[in-house]
Amino acid sequence: MSEHVVHPVPEEWAKNALIDAETYAEKYRRSVEDPDGFWREEAQRIDWIKPFTKVNESSFDEDDFRVRWFEDGTLNLSANCLDRHLPEKAQDVAIIWEPDDPNTPNRIITYSQLHADTCRFANALKANGVKKGDRVTIYLPMVPEAAVAMLACARIGAVHSIVFAGFSPEALCGRIQDCQSDIVLTADEGLRGGKKVPLKANVDAALEKVPVRRVIVLHHTGADVPMVEGRDVWWYDEIEEQNAQCEPEEMGAEDPLFILYTSGSTGKPKGVLHTTGGYAVWTAMTHEYTFDYRPNQVYWCAADIGWVTGHSYVVYGPLANGAITLMFEGVPNYPDFSRFWQVVDKYQVEIFYAAPTALRALMREGDEWVKKTCRKSLRLLGSVGEPINPEAWEWYHKVVGDGRCPIVDTWWQTETGGHMITPLPGATDLKPGSASMPFFGVQPAIVDPASGEVLEGACEGALIITDSWPGQMRTVYGDHERFFQTYFSQYPGSYFTGDGCRRDEDGYYWITGRIDDVINVSGHRMGTAEIESALVEHDKVAEAAVVGMPHDIKGQGIYAYVTTTAGTEDTEELRQDLIQWVRREIGPIATPDVLQFAPSLPKTRSGKIMRRILRKIAANDTGNLGDTSTLADPDVVEHLLANRPG
Ligand code: WT7
């Protein structure tokens, strides 16, 4: 049904936007028919030190496999985000920082200050022995210093690896180990919704297993934290004597910029590696066109810098465009459910970009929280991270945007660096729930998952991308073979997204969600294998199977089936223990919503767990379990059905 609801481009948008429908069609055609010419021009939005002569030299074929853009060009992304804006906008605002508690002073940081802070910290990193190519682990809350740390790394050519400050010491430890970084940047504590997060204590716990040379600690809440002699130093002491000038390192376009760990369907989280030139072009360009960004507009992406959305659309994209980017430390429901909209009013935010899970949670609290704020400054809304259901879309449009603001539902991934399928507000008629049309240079296709055959017209299947784009990830850090196997082996010659997708008669794309063993909880991506492996590390657990289940607010919840070791009594206490165990092992976002004891799991005769059936039981969709003829023991299913908790 929702497919037939169409919100046409508002007239003012069609007239005034950077990209209207005609320009979109023209530019898109050129981007796929003459990609080299197209990208040669678009890449001029970045200041190159040495201009590139080569454009796209990527190949998805196994024999000749590589992803490479603008390879012989050189640049520095920190200089693109800072120095080049100084002649005209040194005194203009770069970052507005709104703290967790509205009564704490905010911070307004100009481009000139951000430049000085970045240079000082870059010099401090150098003084602490960090060199080009070194990996720097960042475990910081949403404070301006997080952006400073990223830009300082980019300035000296160090590779940052940000670990979301909600992750556990175990998760942090694994990520430090994987990229062999010997320096960690953290804070005494983080602050979210009035609650303190013991960041330094978590770092100390992580470092018991993986010692590093240096920890630089930011004084944030002022908590008294123990400092390890010879290893830990204070951020402010380190920058005190440093010069506010630091020459940006000349980086090759394909030199690494950052690593960001993300979950896959198997194994440990992968270190997604992005490089400098293509990523710079992609984030700056998508930020400008998708959000129709114009100078001096206040732009707010509510994502944490621990996720790729924070990397691309809180820091790099907006700053490369000289934008005013708002950084929010807090949460949508603290001190109350009006918080987002109060911040919008406080700074006259024009563009607001958030995840559906936050919107659904706010929607549930009623319209009053929204309606008592003004929100007249808003002109554009964005959605990211998971499918937005039409009901939440309509609420966002009608209640938050007063029916006035287009919504850009942006589909993309950690791997893609930036937006891939998204409406452009002046060009695309909107269908609630559809990410709509490909961005310039993006060539999506839908294949039959069984045969691999490319489907035409209106159809549904697996979403692939048939050619490279500048923002694409370049490798899995330390495991190039895994990069190829994960994304390019399934449908030879194409990038496999892991998502299912439908295309309608108008050519609109509707992402239907992951078709691999990845679940999306509140827009956070998790591998079921990761949670299973945390569970089986518990000495009372023999086997575990984890699946996603539908969840009103989170999109998907986590449903865990656990077989305990022989002789163990499956008590309520143990059930709670196991839930807390996962929470501690991975982090609060991985906390199972349901944990069911399963004396045995449904398996095929060859011993493969039939997840399809587990998903059905979890969804309480038990009327039709599908083909169960290959089950080794059909009674197992009966038992699970009869003992569903709740
Ligand atoms: C997965 C990627 C996008 C950056 C933040 C998440 C899902 C993302 C949408 C959307 C439907 C979406 C996909 C994708 N997803 N955006 N607009 N509509 N699904 O990045 O953690 O790498 O997760 O998020 O399933 O594969 P990520």
From TrEMBL:
E.C. number: 6.2.1.1
Species this protein is from: Croceibacterium soli
GO CC aspect terms: cytosol
Modified residues (N6-acetyllysine): 608
GO BP terms, alphabetized: acetyl-CoA biosynthetic process from acetate
Record Pfam families: ACAS_N (PF16177), AMP-binding (PF00501), AMP-binding_C (PF13193)
Name the UniProt record assigns to this protein: Acetyl-coenzyme A synthetase
Claim: Metal-binding is one of the keywords in the record: yes
Matching CDD domains: ACS
Molecular function terms from GO: acetate-CoA ligase activity; AMP binding; ATP binding; metal ion binding
Reactions catalysed, as given in the entry: acetate + ATP + CoA = acetyl-CoA + AMP + diphosphate
UniProt cross-references to SUPFAM superfamilies, sorted A to Z: Acetyl-CoA synthetase-like
Residues that, per the record, bind ATP: 385-387, 409-414, 499, 514, 525
Free-text function comment from the UniProt entry: Catalyzes the conversion of acetate into acetyl-CoA (AcCoA), an essential intermediate at the junction of anabolic and catabolic pathways. AcsA undergoes a two-step reaction. In the first half reaction, AcsA combines acetate with ATP to form acetyl-adenylate (AcAMP) intermediate. In the second half reaction, it can then transfer the acetyl group from AcAMP to the sulfhydryl group of CoA, forming the product AcCoA.
Location of the AMP-binding enzyme C-terminal domain: 530-608
Cofactors (names): Mg(2+)
Swiss-Prot/TrEMBL keywords: Acetylation, ATP-binding, Ligase, Magnesium, Metal-binding, Nucleotide-binding
Residues covered by the AMP-dependent synthetase/ligase domain: 87-466
Positions with a binding annotation for CoA: 192-195, 309, 333, 522, 583
Similarity field: Belongs to the ATP-dependent AMP-binding enzyme family.
